[in-house]
Amino acid sequence: MSGPSCSCCYDVEFDERIAERDLREYRRRGPAKTTLALASALAAGDAAGLSVLDVGGGIGGLHRLLLDAGAARAVDVDASGPYLAVARREAERLGLADRTTFVHGDFVSSAATVEAADLVGLDRVVCCYPDVDALVGAAARLTRRRLGIAVPRDGRFARLAVGAVNVWQRVIRSRLRMHAHDLSRIEAAAGAAGLQLRSVAPVGFWRVLLFERSQAGG
Predict the structure, then answer these.
(1) CA 35, CA 14: separation in Å to the nearest integer?
(2) Residue 5 domain-assigned?
(3) What pTM, to 2 d.p., does this model score?
């Protein structure tokens, strides 16, 4: 598969140095609180035999937690090649390589080639992507059961924090920008694909949104 087609080059913004740093942090402190909360919400007590789609999986913490919880297999789609390389190496080290598939590409552009999954997760990914409708919509259409999303909280403080990050990004000449997308737009994009918002859980600066597909909706 070809590399990311998005305007921001995630291979550069999330390079090998950052990927290795995040892996060291993960091994020292374990999964981030949002990752733990997202995995718990998606598994809903029992992930046995289910399939997982981890969008922008980074070093792979979310899908590894779900595989440990009993999921049968996982697909990790990421626009950062260095992140995928680290996630693949960890999967091999932990004996999970035969249950994990890695896809390098912009998820929105690649979605047509990705199979639907029972559990779909976006852990602190939506805030890094400019087109929330396209990203959440693509993830929702590929969701068979549950979609979990970790995003910054709504409100003035969140917008100020995101704005401050973007000022720094300009100072260091980074092309990456953060986005404080409204919950209403996220909910609308998921709802258009037949998902319903079931819960919103605060996790520090973040919140974890859980959507489910109704049985009537397939």
Answers:
(1) 18
(2) no
(3) 0.87
